[in-house]
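Researcher: Good morning. I'm working through a list of sequences from a screen, and I'd like to move beyond sequence-only analysis. For each chain I'm collecting a predicted structure so we can compare shapes side by side. This is the next one on the list. No need for commentary yet; just the structure.
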Amino acid sequence: MLFVKRCKYDKVYSWLFDQLVRSATSIGATIVEGKAGSSKNDWKNFYVIALKSANETKYWLCLIRDTLDVDKIKVAELLGEAEEISNIIAEIIMNADDIK
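Model: Good morning. Structure tokens for this chain:
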């Protein structure tokens, strides 16, 4: 959120940042919602959705990096964090059958 708050951009590009905020905040919200899943399969499906949101977040960051005049170093850091989150969620999904 701080990245978006600090960015200066024309109003015409606000939808890019709106999409970034939506996808990024969806990751955690979906995982929290999934913790109350009614079954193991339900729980796993929420993690799959969270992984999709993490990957979507990377897409929006790349689009912002490649089309706007933003702090490229900060975007690279955020992309690294989004990649780590994606990897963690993917690992949880792959090991879901081992979780009791």
